[in-house]
What we know:
Layout: H1 2-31, E1 46-50, H2 59-69, E2 76-79, H3 87-95, E3 100-105, H4 107-117, E4 123-128, H5 134-139, H6 145-154, E5 156-167, E6 174-176, E7 179-183, H7 184-191, H8 194-200, H9 203-212, E8 218-224, E9 230-234, E10 236-240, E11 262-267, H10 272-284, E12 293-298, E13 300-313, E14 316-337
Parallel strand pairs: 1-2, 1-3, 3-4
Antiparallel strand pairs: 5-6, 5-14, 7-10, 7-13, 8-9, 8-13, 10-11, 11-12, 13-14
Helix pairs in contact: 2-6, 3-4, 7-9
Organism: Pseudonocardia zijingensis
Pfam families: DAGK_cat (PF00781), YegS_C (PF19279)
Cofactor: Mg(2+)
Amino acid sequence: MNDWWFLALAALPVLGLLLAGVVVRGRRRAADPDPLTAEPEDRPLAAVVVNPTKVEPGTRARIESVCTGLGWADPLWLETTVEDPGTGQAALAVEKGADVVLACGGDGTVRSVAEALAGTGVAMGLVPAGTGNLLARTVGTPDGVVAATRVALTGDDRPIDVGRIRIDGAEEERVFLVMAGTGFDAAIMESTPETLKGRVGPLAYVISGLRAMRGRRMRVTLTLDDGPPLRRRTRTVLCGNSGTLLGGLVLMPRATVDDGVLDVVSLAPSTVAGWVAVALRVITRQRRGDRRVEHWQARSIVIRSESPQPCQVDGDPVGDARELAIRVDPHALILRVPDVAPPGTPDPG
Length: 349
């Protein structure tokens, strides 16, 4: 009997621990019906910087559904304004601890978000919602909101170059991811109204381009890295981190978003027939043999014109300027891209 009593006494602490465990587990189940679901503060966090004028109804619900379905916390939803097209919102997202920031809008929204994220190590995802979406097309981001959001949350991290441009000696540099330049291209961007883009989409740029085709060439001086000045009469000079245009056309065949250099192209037709020849060279991706189309690569570029000319940065008109000082910032931005080539299946969302 004494032996049984001793065993019973010895078992009491064990029984107490077991009972305590049952109580704790019971409380945990009562507070959290799904023990496999992490606490909100332990889940990864996405922030969505969205241009409210570009997105369709239901976009927010779709993005939130993808986030929660993949075990992420409810995303921060930060809308752009006329005064701040995305840079301040992206900086706030970094401050709040976002693991990835989704740029939901057109090329202007993407550029503004990248301006805040470059150099931070925080990844940027793309949810295309504009007219051009050139960077998204370049890296293969799918068009649908649901599919693009999945890529932004689960895709590969790809360090890409960032272009930086100083206009007429301004103190601050602007960021660009696709193209920046002066002349004919910028004039098209400047003269294409938002209402027309809303009605006919990319065709709006074609309409504006036809109107501007008969303009005069401008005199410019190009300085590439430490090379000698190059003087040209041209219609437009573009510096590109990516060479892809609307419709899959490639203006700069050698351009790659992570090669550590910027591609430069000068287009110098003087007649409508000259523009036809330039268009054929773009379509066939020929780089040599025509004085009207010249290509270079450089890490820094200075473009000086004799008189102020229209300028654009990633499709956004930035006014007239006489000097553009442009440089590449290699691998400054982490971009979330598809881990495999997009299959082209329709977005179920």
